[in-house]
Amino acid sequence: GAGDIHAEVVVLGSGPGGYTAAFRAADLGKSVVLIEKDSNLGGVCLNVGCIPSKALLHAAKVISEAEEMGAHGISFAKPKIDIDALRDWKSSVVNQLTGGLSGLAKGRKVTVVTGFGTFTGPNMIEVDGAEGEKTVSFDQCIIAAGSEPVTLPFIPHDDPRVMDSTGALELADVPKRLLILGGGIIGLEMACVYDALGSKVTVVEFMDQLMPGADKDIVKPLHKRIEARYEKIMLKTKVTAIEAQKKGLKVTFEDDKGETTSDTFDRVLVSVGRRPNGARINAAAAGVAVDERGFIAVDSQQRTGVSHIFAIGDVVGQPMLAHKAVHEGKVAAEVCAGNNRHFDARVIPSVAYTDPEVSWVGLTETEAKAKGIKYEKGVFPWAASGRSLSNGRSEGITKLLFDPEDDRVIGASIVGTNAGDLIAEVALAIEMGADAVDLGHTIHPHPTLSETVNFAAEMFEGTITDLI
Ligand code: FAD
After folding, report:
1. pLDDT tier, 1 (very low <50, low <70, confident <90, very high otherwise)
2. Mean pLDDT calculated for residue range 275-284
């Protein structure tokens, strides 16, 4: 039947996946309704993810660089931190982007419906908003409901001193002692921010390395640097209890030998992963299958088991990254408009915007070893890069992995300042099927960090002559 509103394409969720899909579908001539529960468009990424974290990381970088210039003959006074002004600046960056999205939606005649959407049938969503309920009927639908932070049963999440990433980005204060529970990308980025602002940071991680998934040798320079700056890094340790006390949060740790210790912190950031929002949208009413974790399975055209319903972004699986959501959003919108597109990216880069940054794309050595994939490597230590020495930050490493059969580049891992920007070149190289000679013979500007990619290829080729 017809809903209160009808659209050819309805997009559920306005994060990077959802707004990209909505805008692309509209550009291709479809009438589009975009449903979002929050008052601002942009989803996690713009409001409480990628963007506010990068604004704060920029501030952190300026603070720590100013501190470290002392060793090179330039000393600044201790920074005066006006936390309210910093928070306002972060919010202004977010508002500029989310406000921009509203304008872009209007310009394309995308109708935004505010409220929580749930399926009531294969062609109908009910939206529960501030002004009551509204039904939206559709010919095709793109689910872009995203994800939310994982909570743990033994943690008093209702205590305001226990934060998730959203709470940490609110920047309520600068806690004296902060525990980061979970040494993954999001936890370590926030650790970096609070360390620069003056917190004494402890990181606890269950696995035997920070940033599990990334190669150990690549994580090492980051580990070394933060170990020197932070109060403590605990590996192979789990948190078994958190007790809210008046003087702080009493945390119990258990190491891999079963020994327990406890310590008290002013705040705890729980960053142990994200879970997809698929279980909340009553997808069953539309016949769309959601697995027990909340993920929705899709084919290479982003189609769910129901042929006119698509899904994209965090809700369809790992890696939960904005650039993956955006790419999938374009694929889904174009398929909705009748184009024959598939998600056929060979690789999706991952970046931790810590200091130093850590990035990887395609095959890692960890994965190659686990799967028995043959590879050869070219490794360039940044201590031999003129630019990284000039920056006073020579701890980086650029590592390229090659297919031994044809010398094509199949993966890269980079640690160092700006590693996130550097990885894009290798992503392109892999998409283009470039080999070691292609990377080694491409003239890179000197002196830049981009040369480290060029040099790593030359290390593999054995053609490097001078290390500068
Ligand atoms: P989301 O951005 O999660 O958006 C989903 C939207 O749907 C939300 O607005 C939600 O309110 C809405 N919604 C959900 N259910 C309903 C419903 N039933 N009805 C109405 N609306 C609904 N990724 C990167 O690539 N780079 C980074 O630097 C980066 N940094 C991050 C930092 C932090 C602190 C966090 C938490 C995440 C970060 N990410 C980063 C991950 C990135 O934010 C996500 O991968 C991305 O936002 C996923 O986009 P999405 O479109 O799938 O969904």
Report:
1. low
2. 97
Are the C-beta atoms of residues 271 and 150 closer than 8 Å to each other? no
327: its two tokens: 């790419």
446 has catalytic annotation: yes
Q: How sure is the predictor about 468, in pLDDT bands with cuts at 50, 70 and 90?
A: low
Give the residue from 191, 188, 178, 180 showing the smallest Cα distance to 264: 178
Long-range contacts of range 387-394, CB-CB < 8 Å, 24 or more positions apart?
A: 387/447, 387/448, 387/449, 387/451, 388/416, 388/417, 388/449, 388/452, 390/447, 391/417, 392/68, 392/69, 392/71, 392/72, 393/356, 393/417
Please state the atom number of ligand 1 nearest to the C-alpha of residue 274: 36
Q: Is 322 assigned a ligand-binding role in the annotation?
A: yes
Edge-to-edge strands, sheet with 237-245: 237-245, 248-255, 260-265
188 is annotated as contributing to ligand binding: yes
Q: Are 279 and 187 in contact (CB under 8 A)?
A: no
Check if the beta carbon of residue 428 is closer than 8 Å to that of residue 345: no
- When pLDDT is cut at 50, 70 and 90, the band that residue 467 belongs to is low
Ligand 1 — pocket residues by CB below 6 A? Answer: 12-18, 35-38, 43-45, 49-50, 53, 116-117, 144-147, 165, 186, 277, 280-281, 313-315, 320-323, 325, 353
User: ∠ CA 118-288-301 to the nearest 5 degrees?
Assistant: 115
pLDDT digits (tens, 9 = 90+) for 182-221: 999 999 999 999 999 999 999 999 999 999 999 999 999 9
Question: Does the interface predicted TM-score (ipTM) exceed 0.85?
Answer: yes
Q: pTM for the whole thing?
A: 0.97
